[in-house]
Amino acid sequence: QVQLEESGGGLVQVGGSLRLSCAASGSIFSINTMGWYRQAPGKQRELVSSISSGGSTNYAASVKGRFTISRDNTKNTVYLQMNSLRPEDTAVYYCNAEIVSKRAARTMAPADYWGQGTQVTVSS
Fold it and tell me: In this structure, what DSSP letter does residue 53 have?
């Protein structure tokens, strides 16, 4: 069994900062891409940022220059540093990871895992 546990959401004023963390645990053989998605009320879930196992990063245009994704492979953890927050960043943020479980190690077939979501609210 594999789990993703998020932390770090909350309420912040415009221009403030928050740091999200997501730790993967359980029967893990390897982790490929890790990332963050968000879903605002009445909108579809969208990719915010992702990072490969080798450290290559990808950002949505709306957050580029303000958000920074990083990961600590020794801790199976991905982070999202969010600076200069805006009201439009308000959403539930979900962690996502492509993980090869120990059960799938022979085939190296990854599966998609999601965290439970953490609320980020930016007040103006």
Answer: T
